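Pilot study result, target chain (99 residues):
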Amino acid sequence: MPTRPYTPNWIAPAVRNFMHVNDIRSRGELARWITRTGQSVARSTVYAVFNEEWEGVPSLGFLGVLALASNTPLARLVAQLVEDPVAKGREQRKGGRVA
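Predicted structure:
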């Protein structure tokens, strides 16, 4: 999924693992799981932030809901599931090497 430079993206393999650990197999199941935890999220929001392969662009609001639903600190969730766009841009400018 092509995005603009410095746009954060989900780390799809990490997201797939997170979903597997929580026994979630689809975006619809994710929306139901979040609702069962007492948080509120529209199914359309889940479909907006994830494609079928668990790729996409996270929103801060959705990350907050996911952190509350999973009882995971937001910082940990971001570190584990979201690609750092600044570091990625730095790698691209340095020819694949991180400065």
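One observation from the pilot: Residues 12-93 form one domain. A full batch analysis is planned for the follow-on phase.
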